[in-house]
Specification:
Radius of gyration: 13 Å
Number of helices: 0
Shape: globular
Helix content: under 10%
Number of strands: 11
Largest sheet: 7 strands, mixed
Order of helices and strands: EEEEEEEEEEE
Mean pLDDT: 96
Low-confidence stretches: none
Length: about 120
C-alpha cells in the first residue's frame, strides 16, 4: 500500500514563505519521479513542479518559477516544496504525487497514480 502524506500547509500573508513536505511509503522511492500539484477552489488541479529520481532534473510551471523550489531527500523518502514570495493566487490545496511508472517524467495529471491527501495553503492579501 503506497501512502503519500503531505504536511506544512497553513495560513500566511502575501510575501511570506512555507515549506511543504511529502513523506512517501514507496519502498523504491529513490527511483521515482515526484510531482507537486495544486487545486484552487472552483478550478482544476494543475501541475506545479516535478523532480526526477536523482534530483538532477527539475521543472516548474511558469507562475512559480523563481519563487518555488522542489527538492528531495531520498534517505528520508521525502520530497519538499519551498514556497517563497507567496501570492494570494497561490491559495490552493497542494498535493504530492508519484507516477505509476516510477521513472516516468511527466507534468500530466493522468500519468500520476499515487496521490497524497493534500495540504491547504492560504495566502492572505
Amino acid at each position: 500500500q503506497v501512502q503519500l502524506v503531505e504536511s506544512g500547509g497553513g495560513l500566511v500573508q502575501a510575501g511570506g514563505s512555507l515549506r511543504l513536505s511529502c513523506a512517501a511509503s514507496l519502498r523504491t522511492f529513490s527511483t521515482y519521479t515526484m510531482g507537486w500539484f495544486r487545486q484552487a477552489p472552483g478550478k482544476e488541479r494543475e501541475f506545479v513542479a516535478v523532480i526526477s529520481w536523482s534530483g538532477s532534473s527539475i521543472y516548474y510551471t511558469d507562475s512559480v518559477k523563481g519563487r518555488f523550489t522542489i527538492s528531495r531527500d531520498n534517505a528520508k523518502n521525502t520530497v519538499y516544496l519551498r514556497m517563497n514570495s507567496l501570492k494570494p493566487e497561490d491559495t490552493a490545496v497542494y498535493y504530492c504525487a508519484a507516477p505509476a511508472s516510477g521513472l516516468r517524467w511527466s507534468r500530466t495529471l493522468d500519468d500520476y497514480k499515487y496521490w497524497g491527501q493534500g495540504t491547504q495553503v492560504t495566502v492572505s492579501s
